[in-house]
Amino acid sequence: MLKREEPLWVQEWWESERGWGQKCAGYSLHFTREDLLEYATQHLNSFKPKVGVGVPDFYEFNNGSPFQMHPDNMALTEWHWQQLEEKGYAWIDRVPTVPGRRGNEKGRTW
Fold first, then answer.
1. How many CA atoms lie less than 13 Å away from 36 in the CB half-sphere?
2. Residue ranges of the alpha helices (H) in the chain?
3. Which end of the chain is more exposed for a tag (fewer CB within 10 A), N or C?
4. Total number of domains in the chain
């Protein structure tokens, strides 16, 4: 496991589900801004086949601009570091409250 000391790039994601509304789906973590932008493009494109015939029943979208946060401020496990190393990203349910970000104090509810 390679734990890094420099800040990680973080993107907040929201989900929208027909009949349930919107809620925070979690946060993707990345070593670099470039990794984050590549992941966001692929993740958003994964919902495109579902789009075009009206509003899909379920989709996710990035909320706000990416930001940096030091790993010591997040509850990262060995699994998160392994995911970052192997896949270039990891998901976390919540991050400490960041002023100006909606809903991040709750994180996932399932």
1. 19
2. 33-45, 78-87
3. C
4. 1
